[in-house]
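Recall that a protein's primary structure is simply its ordered list of amino acids. Everything else, from secondary elements to tertiary packing, is in principle encoded there. The following example makes that idea concrete.
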Amino acid sequence: MSAAFYTRLRSEVAARAGTEMTAGRLSAVIFYEPGAHESAGIAHDPFKSLVAPRPIGWVSTMAADGSVNLAPYSFFNAVGERPPMLAFCSTGAKHSATFAGEIREFVWNLVTFELRQPMNATSAPLPRGHSEFERASLEMAPSMRVAPPRVASARCAMECKVVERLELRDVEGRGTDQYLVIGQVVGVHLDEAAITDGIVETATLHPVARLGGPADYTVVTEAFQMTRPTS
């Protein structure tokens, strides 16, 4: 499908919708299949640049032998609310996904702007048994309902019990060496200063989120409100 066809199609849809968009105000649209971005003139795969921003899954886990791990994951999000559930996905069977599968518990720690450098330090590929907490000069704090510790300086932490751990498969049914871990939240630690009139003001926490590329991040500093239609 050509870019010219896409431009014409979008302008026709806009015209039918009664909008003011015209072909002259629309750019050509590129179509490519995953893995073929270079043939479309894109040097680096933009997948993570486009699905953005993504909250950071700063996950602390503990193995059956007591080893503790702390690592950030860019494939992370809330996936349910009744009960609340969080999920992160690991490319390769890294320590976090492995440990979470052993004792079936993990803790998510909120990355705020003041913790951006320590978070980044914990992304180093340390051997098993070496402490990311020590490398990043972070203090551990005990959890209330699970064994893995939390980051003491994190303004929010959610304790989770694993309800599912599985390897993702492609459309052909083949394993992808990507491991999804889903946890049910069983406890929440929250900085009281983030609460105003009974409501958590997200922007005051300055949470950091992942963008694309090898080193791009953003930080939430402001918010706007938009009420959902009732009919």
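The radius of gyration is 21 Å. Residues 3-16 form the longest helix (14 residues).
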